[in-house]
Design goal:
It is built from 15 helices and 27 strands. By secondary structure, the chain is α/β, with parallel strands linked by helices.
Length: about 525
């Protein structure tokens, strides 16, 4: 029973959308979490309780609220409560070091924080170091934990404070901030990407129209709430009435049994999640025959891995999506029904109403087939970076391109070319380019050749840089259970790569270091190599 487009259009912000859905589907399952199951009515009640406390003595100007909660009802109700009360939410990962969380909390100027029972033990370390006085919402606690005595400058709220819900009419404008997602910054300090209600509503509407998500769907939720792929799961569900299944921590790496046990119909993840299933012999033909939709985003998706997934989920749509955090989760899509015979799957075409431009450094659009930097334009493009006008002006430019409607563009730093048959083709990152012997080298190309020759999904190439910031030589890391002879691998690479692109050293790893979002952690690899170097 899908919600109609007209019904979704009645909502002027994400809070309206959540209320409309939770009232229409009040008895249907909204959330499965390890601690229990919750209907849309249950989730709305919990969210309204949080919104009520956030609204007490609230300022007239929008405020930010942090969420320190992990795969619990309070985590999801906290997000909905923020939106209902006109706050922007900032998801904090309990897997991050306290210092990073402290930096984000200070940067965001959050005036409130929602904490669940799971994160209480680490919350006191954060709150003791927090510079600002905050409202601390702890709906899972009946009374004050002992550690709260050491945080006298904060105001605490417990379970009984959330019972008074009363009337609440969302007041957010579509242009107001829905969330601030903090990502790694080039300076080592996290940067906050500001995403509006309108950005998210445009995205969720595009996904529902593309995939037909409805209240009968049962969607997996794998990513951390601090990773923007989580936005897909949450707001597609809250706009369509679908049920969200939050995977317990112990099953995150290998969720195959979880998918079958709960008869899930929708899958969203980074491709690395599939690579791990394959590595542990969990990706067998037909093993996910109940899936109806499966989408992948966040990193390059190899054609071989996509082919394996198509066999494992024979009844599912399989799409490769692309989009940076600054463009609200995903901006383009490629359907595997058009073929997977690629080293890396194409990025495809932009969603309806969105625009792309492939430009040279001036920036001027280049002819089809030529490589250039990808620019994104349209309603999903973010407002900018939190309290960083300089970077916002640098990355979000005012520009008109011939034949394009958009006048404001985000420059992605991704290198692509355009092919009329398959759309955008990923060529790598500007920042993953190095110069060796005067040649400009794209490191992702070398990684693809190594993957093919060593028949593994996990390869990483890093440069050994000299004082002039050019690369003296390259080093490769490969995750594989099989031993290999370096010279044999180098010899195989010679068929595809010139000599200056062949890594000088290759190292075998039992496990490739990954970021919490499942992407290759190049910083860790570089640190490993520095420790080894004489």
């Amino acid at each position: 029973m899908p919600a109609s487009k007209e019904e979704r259009n009645r909502a002027s912000n994400l809070a309206d959308q959540f209320l409309l859905t939770s009232e229409r589907f009040s008895r249907r399952l909204a959330l499965w979490a390890e601690e229990g199951t919750y209907s849309y009515g249950d989730l709305q009640k919990a969210a309204l309780g949080i919104a009520h406390v956030l609204s007490l003595n609230a300022r007239t100007t929008p405020q930010n609220c942090a969420i320190l909660a992990h795969r619990s009802r309070t985590a999801y109700a906290g997000i909905a409560g923020c939106l209902l009360s006109g706050h922007a939410y900032i998801a904090l990962s309990p897997k991050h070091p306290i210092h990073r969380l402290e930096t984000i909390l200070d940067q965001s100027e959050a005036t409130s924080i929602v904490i669940d029972g799971k994160c209480s033990s680490m919350a006191h370390l954060l709150l003791e170091r927090c510079r600002n006085s905050m409202r601390v919402l702890m709906p899972d606690h009946n009374d004050a934990p002992e550690w709260t005595r050491r945080c006298p400058r904060h105001r605490f709220y417990y379970r009984s404070d959330f019972l008074n819900q009363g009337e609440l009419k969302p007041t957010a404008q579509s242009s107001d901030t829905a969330y601030i997602m903090f990502t790694s910054g080039s300076t080592g300090v996290p940067k906050g990407v500001v995403i509006s209600h309108a950005n998210v509503m445009a995205y969720s509407q595009a996904m529902i129209e593309r995939y037909g998500y409805c209240s009968d769907d049962r969607l997996i939720h794998l990513p951390e709430l601090s990773f923007d792929l989580s936005v897909h799961d949450l707001f597609v569900a809250w706009a369509s009435g679908a049920s969200l299944f939050s995977v317990p921590e112990r099953e995150l790496m290998l969720p195959d049994d979880f998918v079958r046990r709960h008869a899930l119909t929708g899958w969203t993840s980074v491709p690395s999640a599939v690579a791990y299933l394959k590595q542990f012999n969990k990706l067998k033909p037909g093993c996910f025959e109940g899936l109806r939709v499966s989408v992948f985003c966040g990193e390059p998706f190899s054609g071989q891995l996509a082919s394996d997934w198509c066999a494992a989920a024979p009844n599912a749509v399989v799409d490769n999506l692309y989009g940076p955090t600054e463009a609200t989760v995903a901006f383009t899509g490629y359907s595997c029904s058009n073929g997977v015979d690629f080293s890396i799957l194409p990025l495809g075409e932009p969603f309806p109403g969105l625009e792309v431009a492939v430009c040279d450094e001036t920036p001027t659009p280049v002819p089809p087939g030529e490589i250039g930097e990808l620019f994104l334009g349209g309603i999903q493009v973010a407002q900018g970076y939190w309290q960083d006008d300089e970077m916002t002006k640098r990355q979000f430019i005012e520009r008109t391109f011939s034949g394009k409607v958009s006048e404001r563009w985000y420059r992605t730093g991704d290198l692509v070319s355009y092919d009329a048959r398959v759309g955008l083709i990923y060529k790598g990152r500007l920042t993953r380019q190095v110069k060796i012997r005067g040649y400009r080298v794209e490191l992702t190309e070398i990684e693809a050749v190594l993957r093919r020759n060593l028949k593994t999904e996990f390869t990483a190439v890093i440069p050994c840089m000299n004082e002039s910031k050019t690369a003296d030589y390259l080093v490769a890391y490969v995750e594989t259970v099989d031993d290999f002879i370096e010279d044999d691998v180098k010899g195989a690479c010679e068929a595809d790569l010139p000599s200056y692109m062949i890594p000088r050293r290759l190292f075998r790893l039992n496990k490739m270091p990954l970021t919490e979002n499942g992407k290759t952690n190049y910083e860790t690899l570089e640190a490993m190599f520095r420790e080894m170097a004489p």
